[in-house]
Specification:
Protein name: Cytochrome c
Pfam families: Cytochrom_C (PF00034), DUF7133 (PF23500)
Structural class: alpha+beta
Domain Cytochrome c: 615-709
Helix content: 25-40%
Organism: Arenibacter algicola
Number of strands: 31
InterPro entries: 6-blade_b-propeller_TolB-like (IPR011042), ARM-type_fold (IPR016024), Cyt_c-like_dom (IPR009056), Cyt_c-like_dom_sf (IPR036909), DUF7133 (IPR055557)
Amino acid sequence: MRLSFCLFFSLSLIVFSCKPSFNEPQISLEDYRVEEGFELEMVASEPLLTAPVAIDFDTKGRIWVAEMAGFMVNLEGDDEDLPSGSIKILEDLDNDGIMDHSKTFLDSLVMPRALALVYGGLLYAESPNLYFVEIKDDKPVNRVLVDSLYATVGNPEHQPNGLMMNLDNWIYNAKSNFRYQRKDGVWKKEPTTNRGQWGISHDNFGRLYYNNNSTQLLGDHILPNRLVRNKYFIPRKGVDETLTKDNRVYPLHAASVNRGYEEGVLNQDSLLVNVTAACGPLVYRGGMFPADYDQNVFVCVPEANLIKRNILSFYGDRVEAKQAWQGKEFLASTDEGFRPVNLSNGPDGNMYVVDMHRGVIQHYAFLSPYLKKISAEKKLDTILDYGRILRVRSKDKLAREIPDLETLPAPRLLDFLKDSNGWIRDRAQQYLIHKNDKGVLPGLKEMALDNNSPLAQLHALYVLKGLNVLSFDFLQQLAISGGPEATAHALVLMEDYASEKNVPKAKDLFAELLNRNEPMLDLYLSTTLGIWAKYDQEVFFSFIYDLSSKYKDNVIVQEAILSGSEGVMSALKLKLEEKDNLKNTDLDVLAGASLERQENNRPNYIYSTQIARADSRTNGAILFRQICASCHSSSGEGIHGLAPPLVGSEYISNHLEQLGLIILHGLKGPLLINGEVYDNNHQMPGLKYNKSLSDKDISDIISYVTNAFSVNPKGLKPEKIKELRGVSSKDGMEYTEKELFEQIGK
């Protein structure tokens, strides 16, 4: 009996010793405050991940993470070009909702910044390239270069990112004027509006939302690309609109911000007043929050360690937003390591927060001496090798089961187009297209015509679009019977079937829709009339006249008309001049300006084939490191016995023309810098004869150093640099300090 017990005990030890270990985070959230009725949970943390900047979910509920581990590893921003980044898969092996294991999918990446699970594989950005890889047994196979010019310029704060699949089956980005789509195995790239800076989201209708550092919420009043189809017209309204002018923030503590020394940035309690690094907007579409949270837009404010909530209001021809509260935020913390940089709807209907959790998130090209000093004093630069993902859930909603959509047959996917969770609907739409099962066409068409399920209508419609089975007659039927949103999408898709044959049907349909007196339908009719006018100007110009007169004070409608009219601009301009009530109106003036651009071959820049260059400070930072840092140090503090400091130097703060002369022609001592005299033994050579450096390059260096090493960022225009090239010292060699001030004083 004793032997049997010992044997059982030994076997038990073996069994338990073989049980997998679960490395779940044990991190306190007591420094975090979330809105009443919600709970904040730690889903993943170090050591499973480091410096996450973007996530996506697969249908097993696993989290795919892009890690930007090389970003600002110290206050000088060294080594960001090293292959220290990766993409990982986080798993919950014990099914308790907390990630406990990670596996590396891709490593040795340089600053990976975005990813999306699409087309049965992974699309990801590693500057300057955009890649797509298929996935086999959680390993990458058959990598394809989608775009070698995806992110060619800018620092990590100012390069394209986002990679968000929208309702219309196109993938959109922030900080980019291109969209992407794969059709029949071939990747397509098209111009689109340049949107935002970091992060992008969409609502149920398919409108896009984004932001920039100082504007917490921007967006489009209209569906993508409706206002940019005329290559010689640049819309001023309708896209890239500020949806709320209220950029106030309500932090819990005095966080460290980049320009805190400037008047108005901080209040009397040293609290940030307005956003300075807003990013990562998300339209919540999860279906698990209270009803009044549906399609609210949440915004990351990492510099103040908080997340804002905005409430959207939809009007037929525009979207408006307002902050949910004054005096408080949806989520805020006193933890200066809390750096929310992205948000995501999850397959469980909850909201997920990507917390980069890094002490310094201001890129060195824009890092002010003020923040640099504070960061060093607070030792924020030592907050490294962290990374977290948080989940926000409604207290009164139980966790829901996540359907493995990838494994379901197409007929079963149909029902998920009606799901309350937008993530589920979006993914079901894409899998239905990817599976290409034509057996579900009857069900899809029935759903697209069913006004009782307006959200499913739109998803079913774009599945049909993705399967190439739409027709003019079907879209006409939908437009006649559907509500404003479904009809608006039908009008957009109907353009694929614009032809002389379909003119009579389109004429009758458009007349009927105009009689509804519905602002949303009038707006989308405005966008399409010019396309149809190529086949019958008399019929469709008449509609244009009516809409232009009806909305004479609505610039968006006038621009919408012109956007679709590139092919008939000359004829339209002539007709407008013949009508007293339309001559010299907004539409007439816009048409004239567009024709002038066409005659001078000046298209909208989004259609330019020229490769963009880096912004001035980033380009200046790169050049400074290549040319100047070896003497002045990358921190600008100088190198003893070699070169004086730039930090605090009056040449950097106040005497920019002298600085231009120094960089161009050189400088020899003695010099008085910060009250200290530097001797005669060293000379700084000028860059005037460096043929690889343009006037713009010299201007960019000045832009960078005045930003990085002074509290008064300024610049000299390239035209001034060109002028200073022709100015020289008395002996034609390096300037002395005395000669500099005599020269400028003349």
